[in-house]
Amino acid sequence: MNLLFLIGLPLLTAVAVLLSRNKQQVKWIALAGSIAQLGLAFVLFFIYQQERNSGNAAQMLFEQNYPLFASLNINFHFGVDGISIAMILLTAFVVVAGVLVSWKIEKMTKEFYFLLLLLGMGAYGFFISLDLFILFFFLEISVIPKYLLIGIWGSGKKEYSANKLALMLMGGSALILVGMLGLYFAGGRSFDILTLSKATISAGYQSLLFPLLFVGFGVFTALFPLHTWVPDGHSSAPTAGSMFLAGISMKLGGYGCLRVATYLLPEGAKEFADIIIILSAIAILYGAFATMMQKDLKYINAYSSVSHVGFSLLGIGMLTQTAITGALMQMVSHGLMTALFFAVIGMIYDRTHTRMVGDMGGLMKKLPFISTIFFIVGLCSLGLPGLSGFVAEMTIFMGSWQNTDAFHRIATIAAAMSIVVTAVYILRAIGNTVMGPIKNENYLTLKDAAWNEKLAAILLVAGILAIGIVPGWLNDLLRPAAEEIMNRIAGK
Amino acid sequence: MPNVTAIALIPLLPLAGFLLLGLFGRKYLKNSSGLIGTVLLLASTILALYTAYEYFFVYGNVGGVYQKFVPLQLTWLEFSPGVSIDMGLIIDPISVMMLVVVTFISLMVHIYSLGYLKGEERFPTYFSYLGLFTFSMLGLVLASNIFQIYIFWELVGVSSFLLIGYYYDKPSAVAACKKAFIVTRFADLGFLIGILILSFSGGTLDFSTLIERLTSPESNAFKTAAASTFLGASALTWGAALVFIGGAGKSAMFPLHIWLPDAMEGPTPVSALIHAATMVVAGVYLVARLFPIFSITVPGVLEIIGWVGAISAIIAAIIACTQTDIKRVLAYSTMSQIGYMMFALGVSNYGGEAGLGYTASMFHLFTHAMFKALLFLGAGAVIHYVHSNDMKDMGGLRKLLPITHITFLIACLAIAGVPPFAGFFSKEEILLAAFQNNMAIYYIALITSGITAFYMFRLYFNIFWNKPHHAHGENKSEGGFVMMLPLILLAISAAAAGFIPFGEFVSSDGRLLESHFHLSFSIAPVALAVVGIFTALWLYKKENDKPAKFASSMGGAYKAAYNKFYIDEVYLFITKKVLFNLIGRPAAWFDKNVVDGLMNLIGTITEYISEGIKKIQSGRVQQYAIYFLGGVIFLAALFIYLLK
């Protein structure tokens, strides 16, 4: 399959949105385009499975390589492995859901959808790029729309949040750029991931470049203590903006931490693994405790994201195949879950005009559908078996435990303790919003989810259940790719 | 050989009920939902009985030993070769016994609920939750993999959460369901880490392989696990002890019991099913499932289990004497009885005659399920009639609720251990096992059995005798056939279950265990029970001021027991003061002010510097000339310095 479809289709949809004449057209084109993307992602997934089953053991499938700047050895090099496929599927789910929940956007509808689709395109491009230069290009494509989405369609102190987010992410990008250039020169003048993965880079040089790249991508994925754009960014962003931000953008960072920093600089990774573990264990627990004190639903999900994304980084830091597989599962799982969480928060806010937990109560009575979804996403967040979060977290724990020294064991136990704290804040949020007596009489007239909201929620819940109930497919998809990374780390 | 389809259908039918009623119940099956759930469960129960018959009488016993079968095992999630979460079905004496208990009690509760919750708006939701719970509990029972049991363990936890919070608009119910989930979650953390330790040592998650590797002294897994120590205990001990914490949480053992009394906020039939007969004994089942590992740990985790069980038994019994909410009395009584099951395991050994405690524990689990479910359903009928949970609003109901009265009396006699009712036999075995292994625990158990008889008959007399009943516009019927049928069936079981020769079917090693019955040994416990009953009769048969005087003469001791020994307050202090105020609040503050403050500071500094630099770009040519001149001089100086 030609991977360029994955960039072409979103781009085509975005252009079509720009050319359309009225809001109705905009919305339907965006929806049709995003559903087509989802279809495409599934086709890719099935063809990929077929290739693998028929014995194609190449590291990357469907590779394409065209020179861009031959003199600098920069190429349009695309290809996918299991990790990319999983991330592409995730992106496609979130894009459709994001388009659906934004159905009621009145302000500059055309521009809004254009930016959403552009952001999606950036993510697809990022996940299929095998050339660091192109990869970086797509990474930046996904930053700028976010700035506008928050700045224009946001709420609250949106200018502050948009600036903060853009500046922090740009700071991260700067680090990545420097690290990338370092790799380019150290690895024999190439940006190609596959070439670089075979290059020998001295350990000293690796330990210089690794922090740059890991921290750079880490900013995107809320690496403690560089996570502070997350709470403000999410709370100010429009619903779909938050969904994209947490569901997709944070995953770009996690993917980069693994595919670029860890995979290309294994010696650096080994040297800094302990620090990663410490930072992520702090993020997991500290994020969870900080969540416990939040009163605004969006802040609750933002801080809990810091905690959950910490699991991904923890898995990477543990440097075992199972833990890395778990880290990747957690990225997919968290992407779906957090997108759903923000979607539900948006639905509640649209009706009650508040996000304050203390002002709500008894929503179950009038909003049974939305409340049920809120329950499901909450239970996923606290790691209930049958939903995706459990699978990912348990895989990380099992993988982490394979390290037998006390340091890794203590870090694992500390991370595991978060399952209790998570239960506390999730049940607090659920108990005070959807359960309990109705505090506000106006809530008696609320209307439950509309078709577009239902569709978005069902789509994301389906994804969560598909991982939670039959995790085997995702495991099979990710494990060989994780093994490849582990082989490189083990020096094979 | 086991019939895979039949066994797999036992949990799957309730699951089908959950999905059907959960998705379509509210809209399309509003009136038929109860019936659908009940019929599915009836089918499950029949299959469970069929499986039990086949296992115990046809294929299970090979050469005098009950075998363990795993007729189905599907890989669910593979971590590394040999280490995977499998979804399997395990068929051995305890799982088959539990299948019968869970499906039978669940069926009784389904039937009873048809009457008890008639006219409820969320009738379909209720039955779908019941289906989810039954499915999860059956999955737990049938689990062949330690992670599989953890998965279903969590699922029963969440169904319990949903059912306790069934009346979701009641703040007390919301608080109770949260508390139940969080306390058990805390315990599950121990369970999870225990799983990590044991599975790492054993190199597998499969129960049979795990037990085999960790209990045969020649195996490498055992040697490493026993040799690697941490804080003076081996990995094996740590693993087993942590798994037990999970079990203690679910089974409401001291000091993790605080959620159980509050869980009574759920509908009464739910309490009968989940918080009396099935879910709360999951901890006992877990210990029994891993019993060979527990029995081999040094220093003995079984000793800890024994003491935790015994302490829970007596503390709960004392508290039960002072409570006035009849469901809470029953909740504490449940905790006390599970304490019996737990310490019975604690005083047992693996294999042969010494495994008496194991058999006794399972026997008591079985009989307790019958009489405790009966007590709860009976209490439900009373509550249904008087619309109150409080003893003060009851009294003199024996004529008005004749069937409830008789069946409740049978259950009280059973739990008090009066021969020939079921509780007598199982409790006798437990006492005998304790007598042979640990005298201190034996005496605690003996005293507890006297207290048990007292508080149960205090309950009985207060409901059915004491003051005459003042009617104030209640339902004028006992609750109809659907509510009475389960009571009668359970009463028959509670009266007769003791005659099952349990040792022939369930023992620690699958071999026949003869129960030695000594009449002389039974004299002390039965005498104590009779004393307890007569004390209750003397105090509570007629309305009088003796109980109040008695209570005030006890002074502080009574008050402490009435306030549940202030254990809740201790927890409240830890969570509110320590977790929220000492960790949560500072973490949130730190993030907002220090971490984020630092980021903002960087921003401010940048802005400040750029403000400064901005002044350079003033547009005045003279200023530029000065900068230019300064630059030239600087460079000239630099060159001169470098060239020198």
Can you describe this structure in just a few lines?
Chain A is mainly alpha-helical and 492 residues long.
Q: What features would you describe in this structure?
A:
Helices cover 76% and strands 3% of the residues of chain A. By secondary structure, chain A is mostly helical. Chain A has one domain (4-489). Chain A has a two-stranded antiparallel ribbon. Chain A is globular, with a radius of gyration of 21 Å. The mean pLDDT of chain A is 89. By secondary structure, chain B is mainly α. Chain B has 25 helices and 6 strands. Chain B has helices spanning 4-28, 33-59, 93-116, 123-142, 146-164, 171-202, 207-215, 220-227, 235-250, 259-262, 268-277, 282-289, 291-296, 301-320, 326-346, 356-386, 402-416, 422-437, 439-464, 480-496, 519-540, 546-554, 556-562, 567-616, 621-643, and strands at 61-62, 65-66, 69-80, 83-91, 229-230, 233-234. In chain B, strands 1-2 form a two-stranded antiparallel sheet. The model of chain B has no long low-confidence stretch (mean pLDDT 86). Classes of the chains: A mainly alpha (492), B mainly alpha (644). Chains A and B meet through helix 7, helix 10, helix 12, helix 17 and helix 18 of A and strand 3, helix 5, helix 6 and helix 24 of B.
